[in-house]
Specification:
Blueprint (H helix, E strand, L loop, with lengths): L15 H16 L15 H10 L8 H13 L10 H4 L1
Length: 92
Amino acid sequence: MGHFFLAVNIGSFNDPDDFKTSSGEVMRQLRASRKAPGAERIFTPGEKEHLHYLSTKDVGVPLNISLMKEMILMRDELDLKGYDWDWSEKVK
């Protein structure tokens, strides 16, 4: 696996407002494209992550039962105080 990151100052090549307008149009065209059979929508880069952020920002990240049990076990083994989660009693 590899990663590559590149930062470009768009203002060196194009007016930033023009870039935002043209890239926004490209995204709208992509989302309006013909979808694969069974697909409900087309996501553009970062859109799924943003939607996930919106769904969890106020309620927190969902945890599965197995992870909840591990967290409770670690809390109890380390005798940590002040970590009484509202889901603690549900998974014991």
